[in-house]
């Protein structure tokens, strides 16, 4: 059951990454996008990974002198995200003199259980080739713009091809997806007043368990390793109120990785009153407005013109905004905490904690009574089983609740349901100690013979209780 919960959690993690997008089944070519005022609109098709035909639209200035620079927009997470999702950005960038290609994201090979940044990068390079071939576009001045998940994909595509002239990331990450996702989810709980072991142990380890099960795709993607191979100038943009990506943690990581690869041609900017996608937000990032942050589109237009004309920035990084709490590195689980180890521990708990009362029930039905070694054993069986089940049910509920979970009443930073589970865990440990002491006294000899069956079921119960202690510490049940 533990592994099953982890698998479901992996699914939930996979569907909640970053920018909320209209996830759906495979989407056919979108209807033609009418040309906004002052722009032209042209439908295009191109080949992505595996020969998949993808469809898009190019928005360009209606009047331009000579060939213009171009940019391909790579969207955030979700299967089959339609090109209209980025129509606001495409329109504003085109009005700044760029040819902008937006396209329908693939749904083939992209599901709740599977995604490949490598395949998405090949799709983006197919789009770059299509835009480079458009009349009126300067093929030497076509770059990539990536939002959220696209902030991992666009640099990966650029690292593979010199055809990409520049890279822009918005709400991008130079950290692993699992680190970003845990920061995202714990941020929602922190805003509800939660702190302590539920965040530092339980949620982190539950996310790792989902990744270990193979259902958190690209969980440990090496973002910094990719950035080390990016040679193109890079513009990084973050909203001051980005609640999904750590806006202060990521820029230094981008800078370090680029510098390790010998690339100092980067610019980092932060927009006040802006959310994860650099849209205006009226309430500190909780709600996304339609309009782009003031000055954002102007920055993109001027920066692209500069870098494609040979005027490259040199490590131009503004001071990042304040960030309420830091993200933490998350590595794969050690062998003793792996999915199989957790499954084995759970099986032991179920057998050990249920066998004790069940055997007593069977004896009563048969009219047989045997005095137990100690009555503490009953508390161990009940509290241990309830702590294990209650802990996972509550963590799973928080995962299923999405970005804004209701943890219930919070006392001193601990949700009341979590405090109840922790109380059960403490009771189980105390009962384990008391049962061990009673067992030791019995073994030393009390003048009473203990039947073999009683020794077996008590020994099994104690085994479960002893294993429960380090297991409960790992999951934060015995940590403040």
What does this structure look like?
GO terms for molecular function: carboxylic ester hydrolase activity; serine-type endopeptidase activity. Residues 120-278 form the Peptidase S9 prolyl oligopeptidase catalytic domain. The chain crosses the membrane at residues 335-358, 379-399, 419-440, 460-477. This is Alpha/beta hydrolase. α11 packs parallel to α13 (452-474). The strands form two sheets. This protein has a nine-stranded mixed sheet with strand order 1-2-4-3-5-6-7-8-9, sandwiched between helices. The chain has two domains: 31-176 and 221-317, Rossmann fold; 335-474, no CATH class. 44% of the residues lie in helices and 13% in strands. The protein has helices spanning 2-15, 87-94, 117-132, 150-160, 177-191, 197-212, 223-227, 250-260, 296-308, 339-365, 376-400, 416-444, 452-474, and strands at 39-47, 53-61, 68-74, 99-103, 137-147, 167-170, 234-239, 266-271, 316-317, 410-411, 414-415. The model is unreliable at 1-28 (pLDDT under 50).
Global morphology: elongated
Cα(first) to Cα(last) distance is 26 Å
List low-pLDDT spans: 1-28
Along the chain, the helix and strand elements come as HEEEHEHEHEHHHEHEHEHHEEHH
Strand content: 5-15%
Derived structural class? alpha/beta
The pLDDT mean sits at 88
Largest sheet, in brief, is: 9 strands, mixed
The quaternary state of the protein chains shown equals single chain
Instruction: Summarize the amount of helix as a percent range.
Output: 40-55%
The Rg value, from CA coordinates, equals 28 Å
């Amino acid at each position: 059951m533990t592994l099953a919960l982890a698998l479901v959690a992996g699914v939930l993690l996979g569907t909640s990454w970053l920018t909320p997008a209209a996830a759906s089944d495979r989407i056919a070519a979108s209807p033609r996008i009418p040309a906004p005022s002052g722009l032209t609109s042209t439908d295009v098709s191109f080949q992505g990974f595996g020969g998949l035909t993808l469809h898009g639209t190019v928005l360009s200035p209606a009047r331009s002198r000579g060939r213009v620079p171009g940019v391909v927009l790579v969207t955030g997470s979700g299967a089959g995200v339609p090109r209209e999702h980025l129509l606001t950005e495409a329109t504003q960038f085109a009005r700044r003199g760029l040819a902008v290609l937006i396209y329908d994201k693939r749904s083939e090979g992209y599901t709740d259980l599977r995604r490949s940044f490598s395949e998405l990068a090949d799709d983006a390079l197919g789009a770059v080739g299509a835009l480079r071939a458009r009349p009126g576009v300067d093929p030497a001045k076509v770059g990539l713009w990536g939002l959220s998940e696209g902030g991992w994909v666009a640099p990966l595509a650029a690292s593979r091809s010199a055809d990409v002239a520049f890279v822009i990331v918005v709400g991008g990450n130079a950290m692993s997806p699992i680190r970003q996702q845990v920061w995202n989810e714990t941020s929602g709980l922190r805003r509800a007043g939660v702190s302590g072991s539920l965040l530092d142990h339980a949620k982190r380890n539950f996310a790792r368990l989902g990744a270990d099960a193979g259902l958190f795709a690209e969980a440990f993607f090496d973002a910094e390793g990719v950035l080390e191979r990016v040679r193109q100038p890079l513009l990084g943009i973050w909203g001051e109120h980005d609640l999904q990506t750590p806006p202060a943690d990521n820029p230094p990581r981008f800078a370090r990785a680029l510098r390790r690869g010998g690339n100092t041609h980067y610019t980092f900017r932060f927009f006040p009153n802006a959310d994860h996608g650099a849209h205006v937000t009226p309430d500190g990032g909780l709600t996304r407005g339609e309009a782009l942050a003031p000055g954002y589109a102007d920055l993109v237009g001027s920066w692209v013109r500069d870098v494609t004309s040979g005027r490259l920035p040199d490590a131009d990084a503004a001071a990042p905004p304040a960030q309420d709490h830091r993200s933490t590195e998350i590595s794969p689980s050690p062998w003793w905490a792996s999915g199989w180890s957790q499954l084995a521990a759970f099986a032991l708990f179920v057998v050990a904690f249920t066998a004790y009362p069940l055997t007593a029930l069977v004896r009563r039905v048969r009219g047989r009574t045997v005095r137990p070694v100690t009555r503490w054993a009953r508390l161990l069986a009940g509290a241990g089983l309830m702590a294990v089940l209650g802990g996972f049910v509550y963590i799973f509920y928080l995962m299923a609740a999405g970005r804004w979970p209701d943890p219930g009443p919070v006392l001193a930073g601990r949700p009341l349901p979590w405090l109840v589970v922790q109380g059960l865990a403490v009771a189980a440990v105390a009962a384990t100690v008391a049962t061990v002491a009673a067992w030791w006294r019995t073994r030393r000899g009390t003048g009473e013979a203990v039947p073999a069956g009683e020794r077996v079921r008590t020994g099994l119960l104690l085994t479960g209780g002893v294993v429960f202690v380090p297991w409960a510490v790992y999951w934060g049940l015995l940590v403040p």
